[in-house]
């Protein structure tokens, strides 16, 4: 077998889609101009090994995706975190696989089903971790898109699909061991991203806020040559304080800060919400839309998943990469178009969360414990020992992202042009397929609420006895919210992005 590369300047810079036909010797790979290609592999992203002497499939930490020729088949690589995925569609004697859901749909000649209103829920099951996320979503034709996360996907010449486990990091014994692992891996990933054998190198840039996670990540990034940090000056309303600028911390770390307003995306006239909603995760990273030129050709260091990994008090100590919310999961299409590598540093070693949690609660970390609801001694120690004043960060929990889904206020969070376009699109598709459909939903919605309250009561009763009760209801989470026009925001986003990949339609 061999790769038949077809570079297209019209495609997003880092997008790729491979077509594998039973019995054919060539694997056709349509790809954007910044995808790194070679005789035996193609890749977009960076990992913790030398770019010219290692394979992303064997990496413990991989941030991006690609494919590798192996004996009797081809192996495709996902990131080692749960924020992005691969998408596979089987059509007859051919398999289509891509790092973009929309790209896979277009090449396979498939569409999402406008009658199905639960795509957001299906695709947000990445929050359940790599063992329990929903493995496929339906298409209009009655077929399916299989999704793969935190694994390698081997496809043999008979088009049989084999899912392979990722390599795992060590158990962490103490703070120095864990921080040493973070520093070593950050350096290895940075060396890979900036390797001279690349067609394009990706120097670091970090996000920074007044919280815990991104400042700690920015510190680690500064140790490998990062000199710039992005901050959004104001958090979204609803928190104890809205000032979320990381400028003071950036100055302490020697970083030049680039400050942005989180609502600048609303001044854009290019349907900016669409590419974030098309990922099926709520679209909340739309605040990054104005930063395409800033981020293009960079490795973006972020603190995503710090809330799950570094909290001192947690009811979700796990080895499954659980997420508390879908933050970071809406960046894919924007990232592929802009051309940057996303490096959520807290995901390093997260699969060993029990040992990280033990470190957070260990005696050596006690001087950095505040005893508040917002308490993360690992990043606090890291920052304070670097000279960042205790009062400069981690005072109150805030967020700067803008959820675009599950809201009745779409007219206030969308740009005017996007809202009008979405409104016209949504008018074509009724929310319910008739009276029976509406009544069925209402009944299941009520059952979900009862199920949830019973679970809460059982948890409260079982906690003093040390009995664990699964917090997930038996009734599907898709019935946790009312259905309204916002259920169609994913459909609108996918429909808007199809033209981006139209040249490769097969």
What distinguishing features does this structure have?
single chain, 506 residues, alpha/beta, Glutamine Phosphoribosylpyrophosphate, subunit 1, domain 1, Rossmann fold, 2 domains, 7-stranded mixed sheet, 6-stranded antiparallel sheet, 15 helices, 27% helix, globular
Give structural notes.
The chain is α/β, with parallel strands linked by helices and 506 residues long. It folds into 2 domains: 2-167, Glutamine Phosphoribosylpyrophosphate, subunit 1, domain 1 (4-Layer Sandwich), CATH 3.60.20; 175-392, Rossmann fold, CATH 3.40.50. The protein has 15 helices and 18 strands. A hairpin with a 4-residue loop joins strand 2 (16-21) and strand 3. The protein is globular and about 60 Å long. It starts with a strand and ends in a 9-residue tail after the last helix.
SS-based structural class? Answer: alpha/beta
Average pLDDT confidence is 94
Strands of the biggest beta sheet: in what spatial order? 1-3-2-9-8-11-10
Q: Major sheet, described briefly?
A: 7 strands, mixed
Low-confidence stretches: none
**CATH secondary-structure class of the largest domain:** Alpha Beta
Radius of gyration: 22 Å
CATH hierarchy: architecture of the largest domain: 3-Layer(aba) Sandwich
Shape: globular
Number of strands: 18
Span from first to last CA? Answer: 21 Å
Count, helices: 15
